[in-house]
Amino acid sequence: xxxxxxxxxxxxxxxxxxxxxxxxxxxxxxxxxxxxxxxxxxxxxxxxxxxxxxxxxxxxxxxxxxxxxxxxxxxxxxxxxxxxxxxxxxxxxxxxxxxxxxxxxxxxxxxxxxxxxxxxxxxxxxxxxxxxxxxxxxxxxxxxxxxxxxxxxxxxxxxxxxxxxxxxxxxxxxxxxxxxxxxxxxxxxxxxxxxxxxxxxxxxxxxxxxxxxxxxxxxxxxxxxxxxxxxxxxxxxxxxxxxxx
Length: 245
What we know:
Structural class: alpha/beta
Shape: globular
Strand order of the largest sheet: 3-2-1-4-5-7-6
CATH architecture of the largest domain: 3-Layer(aba) Sandwich
Strand content: 15-25%
Helix content: 25-40%
Number of domains: 2
Number of strands: 7
Order of helices and strands: HHHEHEHEEHEHHEE
CATH topology of the largest domain: Rossmann fold
CATH class of the largest domain: Alpha Beta
Distance between the termini: 42 Å
Radius of gyration: 18 Å
């Protein structure tokens, strides 16, 4: 699963026994060499699905990590892009340019802010907010507050977008893999402190859409056609487009 330049088993074990924030601080220098970084084909599919919804001036990458989403926003936004994350280590990698290759030529200004996504320090100035691969770090009871913070950071009519993959078939290898991972994390958090919050099966789309609507968003689901369709014809992934009323 990992390249020779990626984290060792010992490094992953130390990360897994740390808090969520400390774990990502430790993993940050090698994060982009792990499968945890959002794949380029997903980044391209997100960009291609979002672009027709523009134009956009100011973009916000929520839980930006090493900056994969910032790269997408730099190609979509014309004025300024902000990445926000609670991990100083991940932000340091993003700022050092060890994440995605910067867009050639002139582009929007980019800045990074260290903050918890549950307490965003922004006025409602963003046209577009994006988040990639971070929702497993929030418990279901935290979702409404998280969505409320993003809502408050968007101007009226601003959009909050994120991809959601189709759930694996019950009984499939992927199903049992995710089930086993979540079970192991629950056991770890019951027996060991500080907690490392990361779950794959706590973000069901119907509940997520309900929380967004109650927060004050209008929600559309767009198929991400570049990622293909399943044998039954349904898309392998959808883009959630939540618009601030």
